[in-house]
Amino acid sequence: MLANQLLIAELSALPRLGFKGRGTLPFMLDRGLLLANATNCAFLQPDGLICMVLAASEVFLLGPADGNAARLRDLEENWRIEDNHHTYPLLRRHSHAWFAVRGPSAPDVLAKLCAVDFRSQSFSNLHIAQTSVARLNSIVLRADQGGETTFHLLSDSASSAYMLTCLQDAAEEFGGRIVDAITLMR
Fold first, then answer.
1. CA dihedral 128, 132, 137, 138 (to 10 degrees)
2. pLDDT tens, residue by residue, 24-46
3. What percent of the chain stands above pLDDT 90?
């Protein structure tokens, strides 16, 4: 069916949220998230949420593929400056477009747009690169799905059409095609 095909999806409709500040990691741990103080690593949560630790003072949360934003909404709505947690929310759904590239040739597609070596032997699952992709500051997360190589790419939302065009162009020689989020997550 879709196995071994190169698929690209624009996931910007899915929920995402960030937190930043010196108390961010303890705040996340107190809220039941599973994570460690390991920069540029991601941690899958039992509910499908992905917690990316970008720095000791910053996390980026990607909502589950089913679009359930309840946990992110709860984190955002129950944060209060008066509680003095030394962290604050960042509304990443407004700042970052979200794309996914899945399939065996996904590292080859990214190689055409970025100098980081994303091949399996160099870039393992649940690792993050904060780098430049198609000349845009980007966050690239490898989070394999169903045994297939899968990369999540987050970049400036104002340049989302440009990034999608770049991904399509890079994927053309590999037979890549655009799919919706539901098709990608199957």
1. -30
2. 999 999 999 999 999 999 999 99
3. 81
Tell me how long the chain is.
Answer: 186
How far is CA 135 from its chain centroid? Answer: 18
- Phi/psi for 57 (5° steps) reads -120, 15
Dihedral, CA of residue 72, residue 11, residue 65 and residue 152, to nearest 10: -90
Does residue 1 carry a pLDDT above 50?
Answer: no
Which whole-number Å values give the CA distances from 114 to 62, 97, 111, 129, in the listed order? Answer: 22, 17, 5, 10
**All structural domains of the chain:** 7-12+94-185 (3.30.1360.120), 16-93 (3.30.70.1400)
pTM beyond 0.90, yes or no = yes
